[in-house]
Amino acid sequence: MMPETRMAVIAISFAAGILAAAYMPVMVWLAVAVGAVAFAMGFMTGPKRAVICVTAVVFALGGARYANSREVPSDDVSRIGTRVFEFRGLVASDPETTADRVRVTCRVDSVKIGGRWKRASGRVLVNLYQNNDSPPPRLEYGDRIRVAAPAYPPRDPTNPGQFSWKDYLARQGIYSCAYVRSSDQVEVLAGNRGNALVRAALAAKDWIAGSIERISPKREASVIIGMVLGTYSYLPAETFKNFGRTGTLHLLAASGYNCFILLFLATPVLKLMRVTPKWRSCIILGLLFMYLLMVGAKPSLLRASIMSSLWLIGPLLRRVPNTRNLFFTAGLIVLAMGPEYLFDVGFQLSFLAVWALIYSAPIIEAALQAARPVKQDRKIKTGVLRVVGRFVSREAAAAGVATVTVTLFTAPVVACCFNYFSLVSIPANMALAIGVPVIFAVGIAAPVAAMLGPVGTAIGWIGGVVTHAMLGIVNYLGAWEHASVPVASPGSLAILGYYLMLYSALCYARSKFVKR
């Protein structure tokens, strides 16, 4: 088998083991794995025997990894939550501020039961409600706090098929929540024991956000911060709604596109500084790692960081990177780190979108090339306007192909998880694709630009103009009455049938238009 085929079989087998462990009793999926090995050893020979045995072992490892991840320690605060009315621990996340509350994750180390403090573990999502009469204390990552509030388990959705906040938190290892409505319920204790590297990354995050706010108009700054740091908390409610209706909300989420732009911007700068390829790769790896710490280890960003890192490491090890191999390797690593990510919509959309670009985008491009009329040979005229025009048309065509391809692959998941389908997603994404790198570059350069006086003002003005234009497009298209339409969640068989038809259509197009 080709290297990417071998890695695909391993990654898919691991994911299949996770699925089996999630929906089958442990003895059933273990019996399947053992039966496959016994069948291969008894009736197969040569490479086929090795393939089946390896596949079965990896399948069992996936199931075992998922089963282990679902085990909650006996001293976890969720197991004694009904008796806990006060707990102490470390702020383990960057505080997330919304209109009515501040949300932090507390890593618990002790709980108070019956007037005595006892050791405990686990994480609690603490919601500190904004109250003008009694505002909550300002918390930062690494603060040690005492919370005088009961810990309770998050609730299941009331209707089948609804988003499950309980499952979402469980994928992050959080099984308890707490509500704080008065400042005297939270006390910041002495000591700061957070990870120094994480503190530095979060300080850099606040520095970048503050710099963007200094050089950009307030309305546009919220969008720039959202795109650079992958957060929705700075966005006005109406803007957030219109991004959702136009199918462009993914542009405000930390994803692989952010990593790509970071590589795209950092590489030429380091080349101009005459940094050697070896050290250039090391510096970019460091930037990717710090960016991951800043915005959080979301599944889509984990996937992109792993693929980008492996791509950079390959030449250092005298290996030629293979995109498909990297794709499946990244999937295996992400699932090994957190098998519950397989059920996360961010993981599903991220991997579907990237596979669409890897597998089907070249097929669609080949079909368009074949449909394009053949032009007679003639002398190509040069000129600034012609060069710019060709560049813009080429980028617009590439953005169009990418948007159509990704939409085809992700539409069933979007419909299933969000119960809507955007009718303006393709034109909206095409219109915004060119502006995103400009906004990202302005945001990353903001800390330096804020110290350059008029130059920084000019950079902020450029970012503001581009952002204003993007907001105009989003708000215009999002205001349409039928910009998005509600849809019922399709069933499993319907989704499977859709992907089978899509695969058949792509196979036909590949056989007809792609040259071997």
How would you concisely characterize the structure shown here?
This protein is 60% helix and 11% strand. With 516 residues, it is an alpha+beta fold.
What are the SSEs and their pairings?
Blueprint: H1 3-23, H2 26-43, H3 46-69, E1 87-91, E2 96-97, E3 101-113, E4 116-119, E5 123-129, E6 143-147, H4 165-170, E7 174-180, E8 186-192, H5 196-215, H6 218-229, H7 237-245, H8 256-272, H9 277-295, H10 299-316, H11 323-337, H12 345-371, H13 384-418, E9 420-422, H14 425-433, H15 435-449, H16 454-478, E10 484-486, H17 492-513
Parallel strand pairs: 5-7
Antiparallel strand pairs: 1-3, 1-6, 2-3, 3-4, 3-5, 6-8, 9-10
Helix content, binned percent:
55-70%
Q: DSSP helix count?
A: 17
- Assembly classification: single chain
**Which segments are poorly predicted (pLDDT under 50) over 5 or more consecutive residues?**
none
> What composes the largest sheet?
8 strands, mixed
Estimated radius of gyration: 25 Å
Percent of residues in beta strands: 5-15%
Q: Averaged pLDDT, please?
A: 83
Number of domains: 3
Q: How far apart are the termini?
A: 18 Å
Strands, count: 10
What shape does the CA trace take?
A: globular
Class by SSE composition: alpha+beta
Please write the string of helix (H) and strand (E) elements.
Answer: HHHEEEEEEHEEHHHHHHHHHEHHHEH
